[in-house]
Write a structure and sequence with these properties.
- This protein is an alpha/beta fold.
- It folds into 2 domains: 168 residues, Glutaredoxin, CATH 3.40.30; 131 residues, Alpha Horseshoe (Serine Threonine Protein Phosphatase 5, Tetratricopeptide repeat), CATH 1.25.40.
- Helix content is 48%, strand content 12%.
- It has a 5-stranded mixed beta sheet with strand order 2-4-3-5-6, with helices on both faces.
- The two termini are 33 Å apart.
Amino acid sequence: MAADFNAAMRGAYDLSSLKNPAPAQPTGSDAQPAAQASGDSQGVLKVTSYFVELTEANLRGYISASQEVVMLLDFYSTTDEGSRSLSQKLIELVEKAKGAVLLGRVNLSEHARLAEAFNVQQPATFMGLLKGQPVPLTQGDQPEDVLLQLVDKLLQVAQSNGITGRAELDAEAAPIDSTPRLPPAHQVAVSLLNEGKYADAKAAYEQILRDAPADTMAVAGLAQSELLVRLDGVDVDKVLNTPPQNFDNLLQSADALIAIGDYADGFDAILKNYSDADDEMKPKLRDRLLRYFEIVGKSTPEVVAARARLTSLLF
C-alpha cells in the first residue's frame, strides 16, 4: 500500500517560498487565502462538502482531485489536545476559503497505513497535496495567522504550477471517483473482454506489449485473455467433473479451476503431476503456471506458495 501511494505522489515544485511566511494577515471573519479571490480557474469540482475523512478506499480519488484543486491534509488524533485545536482552525480556514481548497482528514488511530504512506509519525501534522505530491507544511498546533500564510503560499505555488481549479458545493454531486483510471489502450482491451471478444482482446494486449514491453498490467491482461480464448465454447462444468486422462486434459482442467477462482487447486493440478511429465511437456506446464501467476497476482498467498513448490521441482 505505501509503495502504491508513494508512486502516485511524485512531482517537482519550487517550495522554497513556503519556508518563509509573509507578515501576518488578518485573522478575523474576513481572513481568507489570498488566491481564493482569483477568477482564473481551470474548472470547477462539484463536491458535497469541503471536508472528507480520507481512507485507503477513497484516497486515490482525492489524489486525482489534487491535479485540479489544492488539497490540505490534516493528520489528527482525537485524544491529542494540540491536534484537536489545529483541526478546528483548519476547518474554519477551509470554510472561509469557499472552495479554494479541500481538506482531507486522516484519523491516525484508524488509518495507520495512510500515515505510513505519507511518512507521518505524530498527530497535528499538516500537509498540502499538489498534483499528488505531498507538501509538508507544519507539525503541531499553530496560530491562525501562520496557517493562513502557509495556505496562501501553497495556493501561490499551486497557481504557478497550473493548479487553478476550485471546489463548489452541490448537494447532488457524485462522490469523487476512486476507481483506477486505465490508459485508453487498456480501456479498449477491457471493453473487448467484457463483450466476450476474447481473441480481439488478446490482440489488443499483444499490441500494447509491442508498444510497451514492460507493461505488467498488459502482461496480466494478455494471460487472462489467452485463458478465456482457450475456454471459449468449453463446457467448464463437464471439464471439472471429468478426471483428466492426459496432460492436455490436465491443462484444460487447470484452466477451468483458475477461471472459477479456485487458484490453489488449479496450481496443484499442475504441480502434483509435474514430475511425471516428459521433457517436452514440462516447459508447457511451467509456462502455463507462470501465466496463471500473472492472472492471480504474484504477491497473493496462493501464488507465493505455488512458486515455491515450482522452484523446488525445477531444482
